[in-house]
Structures are given as C-alpha cells and as structure tokens.
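PT: before anyone asks, these are the final sequences, not the draft ones from last week. 230 residues across everything. Please model them as a single complex and drop the result in this thread when it's through.
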Amino acid sequence: EPEVTQTPSHQVTQMGQEVILRCVPISNHLYFYWYRQILGQKVEFLVSFYNNEISEKSEIFDDQFSVERPDGSNFTLKIRSTKLEDSAMYFCASRGATSGKHTDTQYFGPGTRLTVL
Amino acid sequence: SQQGEEDPQALSIQEGENATMNCSYKTSINNLQWYRQNSGRGLVHLILIRSNEREKHSGRLRVTLDTSKKSSSLLITASRAADTASYFCATDPAQGGSEKLVFGKGTKLTVNP
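LR: through. Structure below.
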C-alpha cells in the first residue's frame, strides 16, 4: 500500500542552524501538508501546498519557515534559524484529488523528530 | 472546549472489552477523521465520516457522528493489547477553502492483556 515517507526520522541541531525536513508524498497525490506536534500537545497545522504554491498557512508558519517541491517526488520543509521552541515532531501529509475536495483523507508520514539544543 | 476535544483523556480496559472515545467540536465541518498514534510514532488514519453520514463501520471500528450535537464517537469492539495507542479526532472545518485538519488532544487507550 502506498505511504508517505519522511527523512530523517530524528534530527538534532543547534539553535540558529538551518534544517531541512524531507517528505515523499504518495505518488498520485496533489495536496501536501506539514503539521507539527510539540511533545504532549495537539497536532497543529503549519501549511498546505498545491499546484506549486502555498494555499494556506497558520500563524506558526512565519518567515523562518518555507516549503518547496524541488522535483516531482519530494516535498521539503525548511526552518532557516531554529529556535528551542521548534523542537517537535513534524508530520508531512498528502491527499488525493478524487470525488470532491473535502472528502479525501490526509495520509500522514511517520514524522521527523526535531530536537533543537 | 476547543475544536476537536476528545474524552476521556485516558482509558484503561481489559482485552476483549469495548472502548468508546468521544470527540466534540465547535464549528461546522465537512468531515471528521479518526487517527491512531502509537507512542512517539506517526499518525495512522482509521476512518473518515462525512458530515452527511451518521454512522460508519470498518472492521472492529464503529464511528458515529451527530452534527446537531457537534460530537462523534469511536467504538473499538473486542479490544486487543495491540490497540494500545492514542486516538485523535480531526475535523475538516467547513471554512471556505480551508484544508487544514484541526486535531484534539487525544485519548490515550491502554488495553491490558
């Protein structure tokens, strides 16, 4: 069964460093998402991406964050200058485009645990 | 409570028993989805129920949706130790064009062998 994959599974970085989290969405999907989950807290929406542009972003997704689909398979989240509070599990998700926009499931990857020291 | 609030926060049962988890939300929705998360791992999609549906089944899972009460329940029948995980409801709010899912804090289910 197709699945969303993410690399790395765990990333440790120093405060102020740039990190790039990578995702390979399910191959025929068109909508891509990033969410994060701070330890013990809710999963929070960061950004959605469709047709090579951001379609929606949350207040969390400030100028330090950016997303890119550099080729036909990868979807990346870049944090330019990490802060301690960026430590969280980051989930990528993707969705197909069948039978109406709001009736499709978002499939999540296994997550990247980011630790900022 | 906020959009997508589950209760109870934690539930401990014996193998073979049924587990019921509830979710309440505030705004109108397009659909509601239930996910499972094993400790520190990814989110596994369980079931999606649309706003015009009242009940849905998938294997040992039964989901109900009451849009008048803005609530949903997830029933796991004949639970197994492997069902031990956190369960989250996520709503797709009916806010013109928004695609984000809004998650609750989850119910931590422990199934004792």
